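Why show two proteins at once? Because comparison is the fastest way to build intuition. When a single record is shown, students tend to memorize it. When two are placed side by side, the eye starts asking what differs. So, the first record is below.
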Amino acid sequence: MARIGIDVDGVLRDFPRAVVTRFKKAAPNMVTSDVVTGWRFPNIALSWKTKAGLIFGKWAEEIYGGAEPMLGACEEFHRLKKWAKRNGHELVCVTNNTRRLGVYTREWLDKHGFTFDEYHFRGDKENVAIDYLVDDSPEVFEAWVRAKGDDSHFILFDHPYNREVPARLRITTLRTIALTGIDFINAVQFFRLPSEWRKREDRRDPLTQSFQQVHQRYPFAKLRRSGKERRDISEGRRIYDGGAHADHLGGLRVDRRDGRDRRGA
């Protein structure tokens, strides 16, 4: 059983868009772009003190309570929840929205049907008893690596403001986890290890076992390591989920239309 921690803002709730929308309503000439490239909203031409006072103070209830879910997040979360229940995993809400913001967040989660096995409203996410964490914050990534020693169980939710983060696992949709499962995530770690380590014939090693499970369950998947070393689990061509969606996992882009791997942009 795995305990999977999931962040709220930037993963389930479209917090960046809610903030930009509110500032455009109040001072449209101050918003230089709709694209958020940092958590301090550099696309809004005001001091951080002024922005923070409005976001976390005067407009907090409107922003936190009225924000829309991320595109497709409701459907993806429910699919992930069914997968977790079927496989004996737990979904844990881990957000740094505390006190008053936590109240708005809990009401928002209930309103949109995001129900978890546990809820943690705290800033030190790396100290919560979870096996994996899905988060979009560069700062949380750094804190996780400092506490755990590496980023092997950190799943970065892709956004323009975290493109420079050297995370090994990067996803664009929650359904990546539900579709491929934790075994596939472990297998991605396996592909990123030195080739001499991967050649070991230690069948008891969990990563080797994970690779074997993926080989059986996803024979059509093809992965590329470091843009040079190609590893084809199978030559078979097969439709993965009936769509043309491509996800990024640790620098690996798997195109679900035919299982071929492509270099990410």
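Second record. Ask yourself what differs from the first in the token line.
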Amino acid sequence: MMMSDVNSIVLSGRLGRDPESRTFGENVKTSLRIASTRRWGPGDDKRETLWMDVDCWGNLAKVTADICTKGQEVTVVGRLTIENWTDKEGVPKSKMVIVASDISFGAKPAAAGGEAPVDKEALKQKMKTLMEMVKGGVDQDAAIAVLLGQ
């Protein structure tokens, strides 16, 4: 029996910067930079941080741009791809990028006023509802208002 190839990745971490969105015709692309830190050793005192670029498209890109902020916890499900380009000096460059198919939004960093942590389960349920609304054709602003409880 022949095995089929699988290109799938799940990455959890924190956003290293606010999302950046660009429009290409009628399509929207939002780019994220995620820091995923692995801890090990006695007392988890050793750390290694992996930085990954993530691109999302369409409705997921719009929702992500509206909701996410620097420092927020996210879990991304997607596939790996390699972007190739040539820099100004003519040197070929490449980087690995995750193309997101789904993003779960977690806790945002505490505000200066010391806000309480976000209820992750409640946020996951609201996010699921939001994604279903957007996929069903509900106006994005109306869907976000539901997420924010307005």
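One difference worth noting in the second protein: The beta strands are 9-15, 20-24, 27-40, 46-57, 73-86, 92-105.
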